[in-house]
Every structure is written in structure tokens, then in C-alpha cells.
Amino acid sequence: MPLDETNFESFLSENPYVFVNFFAPWCIWCQRLEPTWEAMAEEVERLNREVEQVDERSTSIDVDVVKVDCVANRNLCGTQRIQAFPTLRFFKDAQQYGIDYKQDRTVAAMVDFLKQKVELEKTMEDWHPRRKQRMLEIKEHPGCMVSGHVLVNRVPGNFHIEARSIHHNLNAAMTNLSHVVNHLSFGTPLAKDMQRKVSKYPQFQSVHPLDGGIFVSRDYHQVHHHYSKVVSTHFEVGGMMTKSREIVGYQMLAQSQIMHYNEMDVPEAKFSYDLSPMAVLVSSKGRRWYDFVTSVCAIIGGTFTVVGIVDAVLYKIIKGGKQL
Predict the structure, then answer these.
(1) pLDDT computed for residue 61 by the predictor
(2) pTM across the whole model
(3) Which of 31, 47, 69, 265 has its CA at a distance of 20 to 30 angstroms from the CA of residue 150?
(4) 71: left (phi over 0), alpha (psi -120 to 50) or beta
């Protein structure tokens, strides 16, 4: 059943469970999904019809299956923040419920998905409100985790993070690349004991300045670009009784700014770096053990001398008072 901007909101309000296919006619993946989507809608209707005929072996799926043409209803898809085609989204009580469908695009897989959604909702009806809230808080959220390392030469360069999908056509106008930098650093990762030794230096705080940064793109056609000046830093660490050793790290002077893109260009998060040919040496000169012993002896000797002088002065004062 096709919906448009005039009846979309009212249809969601009138039906508790709705499974929507947001598509674009020119999208090859939407064209390939079309017969499967129609077959899935017919299968859902058949299952519901069998339940009405009191067939206890069948399972009811009280879900309405519809579709929305995002070319003809651009504003509607913009409001729903459709970033790729096709987008298969489940609604409960006129609100998006869970993340978009990402499983196999087969009739059996989609029917099982709908059964699980409806059965879970019926199970949660008897739950305590706090338990429901915890369930909603731990549900999955859309996004990707990117991790790894890149081997680069000591010359200026950059790397990009761009949204792509082998089974979707991205909607460039709606692609959002808000991101969180959990960790970004240069050089060989330091072991925990090494990090503990160099953490006392203020310069170590600049080794990963982007860590924990949250960069949100609040408007369309924009994304954050990051620029870093990377300086090789050699930390000389050592104790009073041990020989000093050198730990190599890389300080980063990082800046971030929002860049704007054309409507038809897919935004990309860009990380640019410039490795400095110079290096910084950070050292801390500790005292040798014999310097420590000498200082202690000097303190003891000075204390003994001062006490002797005070004793002599007091003795003369007291003796003089007795003579008077």
C-alpha cells in the first residue's frame, strides 16, 4: 500500500504497527526489492487471514506493510531523515521503533522480523514500567564502529571516513556523519606501564587530544574536518636507582571545523595530518643515590651545628644571669 505526505501521519496514528519501505524508483536495490516486498506483504496478509479463520497453527502478524516514494514525497523523507535507499523502518504508535531493518531481504527473514517485534511487544505489556525503560535504554542505535591502523610516510597526508553501502544507494542530501573519536594517536601504542611513566609530563596530554571528542552535524550537507600537526616527542624516563630510558610518542596540535558540502555530494569526515621534521626531547633529571645520601648528611650536620650554637648561647645567657 503506497502512502504520501497527505496520509502518512494519519495512517501511522490509526495503526499500531507499520512496516514502511522508503524507496526511490531510480535505485537499483529498490527495484530488486520490489517483488520481494510485495510477496512479503501478501504473506503477512495470508497469515492474518488464516488466524481470522481460527487456524491455531498460524501466527498473527498485526502489522501493516506500506511503502513511500521518496522522489514524489521528498519533504516527508527529509522529515524522516532517510539517508539511504531502500530504508525499511518499523513504526509503533506513530513512532520509529528500533533501528532500521538490516537483515536479509527475503520474505522469510522479514516475516520472522515482524513476528519477533510483535511478540516482544505483547510480552512487554505485562512488564513493569522500569523494566520497559531499561529495555529501551539498552536497545541498539544506528551507527558504525571503525577501528584499525594505517601505515603512512612522514609526509603530510589525510584519510577520509565516508558512508557507503553495497546494498543501498545513499541519499546524499540526508547523510549525517556525526561521529565520536574514541581514540586517535600516532606511533606505536604505548603499554600501560609506559603510559604510567610518561603521564607525569604535561606534554603527554597532547598525545591524543581528540580522544572522547563528540562532533555532531546538526544541519544537512556539513561535517567536521580535523587538522593535526604531529610532532615526534621523546620522553626520557628513569628512577633514582635505575638507568633512564627513552619512550617515543607523538604530540598532536589538533583543530576541528565544520565544512559544508553541495547537496548532491556525500559528506565525509576528513582527518588531515602534517608530521613535523623536528622533534621534542622531554627529560627529567633525577638525583643519584649518593647525591641523596650527601644531602641527608648535610641536613643532619647542619642541624647538629645549629643545635650546638643555640645550646652555647643559652648556656652563656643562663650563666651570666647567675653571676648577676
Answers:
(1) 75
(2) 0.57
(3) 265
(4) alpha
**pLDDT tens, position by position, 5-26:** 999 999 999 998 999 999 999 9
Confirm if 81 and 35 have CB atoms less than 8 A apart. Answer: no
Q: Output the CA–CA distances (angstroms, integers) from residue 213 to 154, 191, 195, 224, 254, in the order listed.
A: 25, 23, 20, 11, 11
Distance between CA 265 and CA 280 in Å, rounded?
A: 41
Q: 3-class DSSP state for residue 49?
A: helix
Answer for the pair 250, 232: CB distance below 8 angstroms, yes or no.
yes
Q: How buried is residue 272: exposed, middle or buried, by Cβ count under 10 Å (0-12/13-18/19+)?
A: middle
How crowded is residue 150: how many other Cβ atoms within 10 Å of its Cβ? Answer: 8
Q: Which of 268, 253, 284, 256 is nearest to 186 (CA)?
A: 253
pLDDT for 77-133, tens place per residue?
988 988 889 999 999 888 888 888 988 999 999 999 998 888 877 777 777 777 766
Report the candidate in 7, 14, 161, 26 with the shortest Cα–Cα distance to residue 86: 26
